[in-house]
Amino acid sequence: QQQVKQSPQSLIVQKGGISIINCAYENTAFDYFPWYQQFPGKGPALLIAIRPDVSEKKEGRFTISFNKSAKQFSLHIMDSQPGDSATYFCAASYTGRRALTFGSGTRLQVQP
Amino acid sequence: GAGVSQSPSNKVTEKGKDVELRCDPISGHTALYWYRQSLGQGLEFLIYFQGNSAPDKSGLPSDRFSAERTGGSVSTLTIQRTQQEDSAVYLCASSHNANSNQPQHFGDGTRLSIL
User: 3-class SS at A51?
Assistant: First the structure.
């Protein structure tokens, strides 16, 4: 029940296209859903996060869509750029246990 | 420094040896977390500290793993009698506290290789 399932495992997008990464969870106690971006040899960096009381959050080219009833959330990267090429992780946590449960990651490659 | 600092950045050791990994959190952050990232996989929670409370050790994979946090700041993760399956990147993160949705800031990790 602690698991967060992430798909796809890898994604190739053309420059200027939209990248979409999906995550699903089972534990309804989760109340915080961050996305992290990780470049090779570096630690993950927080990209954007959402709470279940909103259905969408946008920050620049990055948008999280959240569907509480389906227990799914997704990251959309608009106007994808080669510099966005990285591994993306969704995660979740809940009040009382702030350790993050991570998805398995999506390796994004944006082709110029 | 401004970010989470981890040392060493790389560690190679022989099977059966003990290793110590160090984490310096962001100044003022009371919550500190350790995660493990195996090759090509996601991040696995190991342990977290929040202020003076007892640590949450629920993610430690065996009793060979332990961690301390001295003075509410620096933390050391110790792995005794290392095994080849312990090879991974060990990541440390810190946040203002663990009682609300404060973002966790990660260091660049220690890459541990067990020969």
Answer: coil
Name the DSSP class of B27: T
DSSP-assigned beta bridge partners for residue A56: A65
Which of A99, A104, A52, A108 is closest to A76 using CA atoms? A108
Encode chain B (115 residues) as per-residue pLDDT tens digits: 589 999 999 999 999 999 999 999 999 899 999 999 998 678 999 999 988 888 999 999 999 999 999 887 999 999 999 999 999 999 999 998 766 678 999 999 999 999 9
CA dihedral B2, B44, A9, A79 (to 10 degrees): -20
Q: Given an 8 Å threshold on Cβ–Cβ distance, is B43 in contact with A45?
A: no
Q: Which of B7, B41, B45 to mutate to test the interface with A (most CBs of A within 10 A)?
A: B45
Contact criterion met (CB < 8 Å) for B93 and A101? no
Give the span between the Cα atoms of A7 and A1, in whole angstroms. Answer: 18
**Chain B residues in contact with chain A using a Cβ-Cβ cutoff of 8 Å:** 4, 31, 33, 35, 41-45, 48, 50, 56, 58-59, 91, 93, 95, 98-99, 101-109
**Cα–chain-centroid distance for residue A99?**
17
Kindly write down the DSSP assignment for every residue of A63-81, as one continuous string: EEEEETTTTEEEEEESS--
